[in-house]
Each structure stands twice: as structure tokens, then as C-alpha cells.
Known about the structure:
The chain is mainly alpha-helical and 432 residues long. The protein contains 18 helices and no strands. The protein has helices at 3-28, 31-34, 37-53, 55-62, 69-91, 104-133, 144-147, 152-182, 186-218, 223-249, 253-279, 291-295, 302-320, 328-338, 344-364, 383-397, 402-412, 428-431. The relative contact order is 0.07.
Amino acid sequence: MTPLDLAGYLVAVLMTAVALWRMPAALWGDEEDKRRRALWGCYAGFAAALWTKTRAVRLALNDSAVTDLAVLIKHYTATIAILAILSYIVAIYGRYPDGGTVPRHVRFARAIQQVAAKASIATLILLTVLFFTVVDRSVPSDRFVADHAGQWGATLYMSVFYLYLGAASAVCAYQWALATANAGLRHLQVGLGMMTFAMFIGVGYTVSRTLFLWVSVVDTPSESFALRFDEVTEAAQVVLFAFFAVGASIPALSKGQRRAKLWRAQVKLHGLWRELMTAFPEQPFDPPASLARELTRFDTPADLRIDRWAADIADAVEKLRHYVPDTLLPAAKAAAAADGTTDPDRAGPLAEAYWIKAALTAKNSGAPASAAAAVETQHATDQDGEVAWLVRVATAYRTVPQNRAAQVLADAAPAPSTATAAPRTASTEETA
Length: 432
């Protein structure tokens, strides 16, 4: 296996990983994410095209019943991917009011998109006809361009594809260059800049290959020169897709980091949330499931699920107030202090964890509901602050043994009433 073949496998894996990473948001996300289905279609299409270029897949398809089938499949999937990315460029500009001023680059993108679908269909039909009629496929090829250099049929076939690919690359380079200049965030500038650079490589790739093929018709190159040219341009295309995949991923890293943060919050909150929802099964929208099942619920965005869990926990704590006495709060604080916790950031969540576990113990033991007990109000400034507090409480909750919570509940129990009837003292009249 040559270094170029290895690089082909690596870039195919990279593009596939990006497509899989972006698939949940594209297929099951909110309305904003659904608009990015076109971009995901681009990732998926190019991933399929890149796999057909890898040595093992390429040789297997080219040696099949349809000679050089890998070339046709590669161009089919790449054409669909290009159509998807042109549709995405238009989609991200959103809507403009009727009669309002539409920027020139938006009008340009819309004009391109209007003809892109028809051009794609025409390209696919023409490629199919040329592939089965004028391309010499008598011998399976390994490097299609190098092996068919000097043949007018293959040159015409590739020119049709390169015209479509080059035009789309130029449009993307123009649009993304404008977006890079107007991007306000650093990570957006870097990501868009890498994608723009990739598209400029794409323009150079298509122009150089088209010129090589047509010059080869006039003056057939040597086999070694044709193979060397093919390898150099293929290496350039590997660089193109690497820059495109990484650049397209950078702007999404901030969202990816937030999603990872939300997933970590779910992992930490799940135990506390599930115990409370088991005690109050009427509370959640859906019955609590295992952590693995909850993490793989793609029908609800992670941020919305965390918000629901936070509300569920707050409502359950409010209900638990009716099963415990006012004295449970100071008892929970005393238990946290007895554990040697002096840091306020840890003592508060630990006392809350003691209170919740003791209150759950009381409720599960059949304590009757009564007036709401006193609790300490937390003053979170926003939803993120509330979630951060609950995460600390849930972390402390896992460290509280059940027998310790039962002891805290017993310590908080009101002392038995000693107000019994006073001994009756005989009066003077009774002793007289």
C-alpha cells in the first residue's frame, strides 16, 4: 500500500466520521438543525465518493461485471453531494421580506441554486450515456485518468464532470470567502477560511486535470508522466477533503462542546432524577429509563431534556417537603458539617443531598403527607446556574449512604411530647 492509498483511507474515514457526527442533529434536531440536512447530505455523499476511491473498493468495483464501476459511482455520489452543498449555501441565508433589499451574493447563490438541480440531473444523465458509449472500458483501470490519458471518450466524459465540479467549487469558494470576511467569531473565521482554501484547491484540481486530458488527446504523454500527474493531483484532492472536513467541523465545535457538557450533566443527574421519578411516577413526561436509553433518545434535544429533568427534580423536592418536619433542614446541615466539609461550594450541595435522601426515605417508609417543611431557597441566576447546582447536588447524593440518610431523618424527628397531665394534688377540702 502506497502512502497515497493510506491517505485515501484516512480521509475517507475522516469524512465518514464527520457525516456520522452530524447525522443526529440533521435528522432528529430542531428546525434550525433540519435546515442543515443539506450540509449533512454533502458530508455523506463525499464520504461515499471517497470510499470508492480507496484501493480495495476501487479495484473490487472496477473488476466487477461493470468495468470501472467505481468511477461511475464516485461521480454519481459526488454530483449529489455538490447539489446538497449548493442547496445549503442558499438555505443558510434565510428569508428576506418581500420587496426588501437582498444582498448581491444572496441573489447570486439563489440563481445558482435554481439551476443546480437541473444541471445535476443533466450531468448524471450525460455521464451515464458517455460512460456506457464512448469510454473505452475494455480493460479495468486502476487510475482512471492516467490509464485513459489520450483517449477522447474518457476525456469528454471527465470534462463533463469536471465542468460541474469546477463551477460548484468556484461558487463555494466565492460564497465562503465573503462569509469568512464577515464572520465575527474567531472559530468561524478559521473554519470558513479552511473551507474556502479547500474550494480553491478544488478549482485548481478540476482545471489542471481538464487541461491535462485535452492536451493528452493531442500529444499522448508517457505512462510514467501520466501516473505521476494523477498521483500529484490525487494528493491535492486528499488535502482538499481534509481541509474541508476539518474546516466544516470547527464552527460546530462550540455546539459540540455544549452537547458534550449536556451529556455529562445527564450522566451526573440521572441517578438522582430516576430515584425521584420512581418515587413520583406521575411527574415525568416519560417513565424513567436506564442511562444508556436516556442518552440515546434522539427525539428530544439534550438541552430540552436537561431542562425537563431540572424541573422534574425541583417539583419532586417540593412534594417531598410534605413528608418531613422543619427540623430536617438543620439536621441535614449538621450531617454535612459532621462529614468535615468546610467548603461552601460543597457543603451546600451535600446538605441538600442529605435532605433529599432523608426525605425520600421518609416518603418511601410511608410517612403521611402534612404541611410543607422549611427548605433553603437556591438563587440561581439562570437555567445554566440551576443545572450546575443540581449537578453538584447529584454528585454529592451518590456519596450519601442509605443508613446515614436514615440516621439524619431519625435525628430530625420531633421529640415525643412530654406534656402529660400533671399529678392531681388533693385540695384542703378533700383532706378535711
